[in-house]
């Protein structure tokens, strides 16, 4: 018989999968992506007002260029100085650039600012992905990357709408200062977090850390398979968003309806990230990537032969579903294969492949399309071919993945 004075110690509560730090990081990511995306709808007209209408293509190109070039440095610094300093630098660049847009009165000054602004996305997402991987257990990593992707997607979707509303009801200067303010809020949120890089790895920043002495400091060999898959799977993203405005116009979607493709794509992507975020945790990274590839290929075939708005929007929704499954799975797979001490470099390797895929897709789409509506099907069929190559690549290479995972477990 147990004495009434005897007390049983309560069972320890299991650790929370998603800590306050995780949700704060999602909030920071939402604010960051909203900050620079809210500028996109108004920047072409702003550049035209400065007399540089013929340089509109450089608005995205210069931004992407410095984002890609900065990845090797952000990955190395994330593994040496820390995740949070890398994120803080990215948000700080975003804050400064947003503040100085009203003071750019020449085309050269504007293009130089866009070049500088690109460093923000070269640093912040790299540190964010490494930070999330540090604090989320392996069994929930795919779900966590999906939730982080939801936060970023909401920022990317809401930003342009908010930016156009601010420019229409107030002024471009107000838009720029609000963009800067959102980056500042993202920066403040990061200041409440605790560094996750192991103390034994941390170093004080020195300019010597920016010196790249070998390819091993740029690329993480363990993640070359998911990185190559990323390049092939992200090719359609750059291609589609290069030609969708013209295809929308050809099908009669103008005025307020010209954004229906983006609305359907974003809505489907958010829905699948919320409902199927754990799919790769349950069934494996490669099986989910193979299934999502089939969905993406189907969407591209619909877009290639879309002769009506319903078919066009159905293709947009399927593309959103496919990429909504694909992106967080690739992020999680990259982290799975990376060594904890080189996680920042692993993430930056994957991001370099991502930007290369988007950039090559956009360039080839522009060349194939050539402002000829009759060429639109060829753009989507080229994209479908890229995804098919990625699918075959996974089928051939997936036998090598378990050996890498076994080595990591050991």
TrEMBL record:
Keywords: Membrane, Transmembrane, Transmembrane helix. It is found in: Membrane. InterPro entries: MFS, MFS_dom, MFS_Exporter, MFS_sugar_transport-like, MFS_trans_sf, Tet-R_TetA/multi-R_MdtG-like. GO terms for molecular function: transmembrane transporter activity. The chain crosses the membrane at residues 20-43, 55-74, 86-111, 174-198, 223-244, 259-276, 288-306, 312-334, 346-369, 375-396. CDD domains: MFS_YfcJ_like. One of its GO terms (cellular component) is membrane. Residues 21-402 form the Major facilitator superfamily (MFS) profile domain. It is a multi-pass membrane protein. Pfam families: MFS_1, Sugar_tr. The keyword Membrane applies. Its main location: membrane. This is Predicted arabinose efflux permease, MFS family.
